[in-house]
């Protein structure tokens, strides 16, 4: 069952019972989950996990979904061996915990992964998607990394980069209307700032009635009224990647 009664929005949703179609590999100094399509492709997507880490089955489920749509997908351990957050942890310690895992300091790992995708997977067009913590990392990368073509930030924590909006690449922002972590006024401000400062294509979309994590942390069969929006979010993500990769 969905644990919607828990106090922290990051706990909303489910841990999928899913094994994954890909494999774990060593990429430079980090471990990563990689899934490749049966037909060769020069398109790849870096998948940036949320606070629950690179081994969360939900994130691997999304990576495999990308592969089913023709992409090489890679989900690296952006915590670089540091322990992921556990739902059983004390949320009172969360702020101290997350300070040691800065979504704005993923550049070294991304460079290593980009080299791997180009050298080992034949990738020429590379995008990035990320959830929550990873969504904030996507925004950071879209502001500064010239080697990525596009990004999708799913309920990325806006407050981490709220004063930076000059994106280098087309970026799609997905938010839930009922997200307790990201108030709608923050989303409205993001839209205003992007309109003023952004010179590339972007879109900000709010999905009615949805809580934090809905695209990858809710099972489609949990709540009939959520299902269309879960599916729509996933479809929109893939359509955006298809458009720019």
How are the elements arranged and paired?
Elements: E1 23-27, E2 30-35, E3 43-48, H1 57-68, E4 72-76, H2 94-99, H3 107-121, E5 125-131, H4 133-144, E6 150-154, E7 171-176, H5 184-197, E8 202-207, H6 214-217, H7 227-244
Parallel strand pairs: 3-4, 3-5, 5-6, 6-7, 7-8
Antiparallel strand pairs: 1-2, 2-4
Features:
245 residues, alpha/beta, Rossmann fold, eight-stranded mixed beta sheet, 8 strands, 19% strand
Total domains, how many?
1
Structural class given helices, strands, pairing?
A: alpha/beta
Compute the CA-based radius of gyration: 17 Å
Under CATH, the topology can be stated as Rossmann fold
Q: What percentage of amino acids are in beta strands?
A: 15-25%
Count of strand segments: 8
Beginning-to-end CA distance, first to last residue: 37 Å
- In which order are the strands of the major sheet placed? 1-2-4-3-5-6-7-8
Q: pLDDT below 50 for ≥5 consecutive residues: which ranges?
A: 1-7
CATH superfamily: Alpha/Beta hydrolase fold, catalytic domain
Largest sheet: 8 strands, mixed
Please work out how many helical segments DSSP would assign: 7
| Mean of residue pLDDT values | 91
Question: What are the secondary-structure elements, in order, as H or E?
Answer: EEEHEHHEHEEHEHH
For the record, what CATH class applies? Answer: Alpha Beta
How would you explain this protein's 3D organization?
This protein is an alpha/beta fold and 245 residues long. The protein has one domain: Alpha/Beta hydrolase fold, catalytic domain (Rossmann fold), CATH 3.40.50. It has seven helices and eight strands, in the order βββαβααβαββαβαα. The longest helix has 18 residues, at 227-244.
């Amino acid at each position: 069952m969905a644990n919607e009664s828990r106090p922290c929005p990051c706990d909303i949703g489910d841990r999928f019972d899913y094994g994954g179609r890909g494999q774990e590999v060593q990429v430079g100094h980090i471990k990563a989950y990689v899934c490749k399509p049966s037909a060769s492709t020069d398109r790849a997507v870096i998948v940036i996990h949320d606070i629950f880490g690179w081994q969360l089955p939900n994130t691997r489920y999304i990576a495999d979904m990308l592969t089913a749509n023709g992409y090489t997908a890679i989900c690296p351990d952006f915590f670089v061996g540091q322990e992921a957050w556990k739902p059983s942890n004390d949320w009172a310690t969360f702020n101290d915990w997350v300070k040691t895992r800065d979504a704005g300091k993923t550049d070294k790992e991304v460079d290593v992964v980009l080299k791997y995708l180009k050298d080992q997977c034949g990738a020429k067009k590379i995008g990035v998607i990320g959830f929550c913590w990873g969504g904030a990392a996507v925004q950071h990368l879209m502001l500064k990394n010239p080697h990525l073509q596009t990004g999708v930030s799913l309920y990325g924590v806006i407050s981490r980069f709220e004063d930076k909006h000059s994106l280098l690449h087309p970026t799609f922002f997905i938010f839930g209307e009922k997200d307790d972590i990201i108030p709608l006024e923050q989303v409205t401000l993001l839209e205003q700032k992007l309109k003023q400062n952004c010179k590339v294509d972007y879109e900000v979309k709010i999905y009615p009635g949805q809580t934090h994590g809905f695209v990858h942390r809710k099972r489609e069969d949990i709540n009939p009224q959520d299902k269309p929006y879960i599916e729509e979010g996933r479809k929109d993500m893939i359509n955006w990647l298809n458009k720019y990769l």
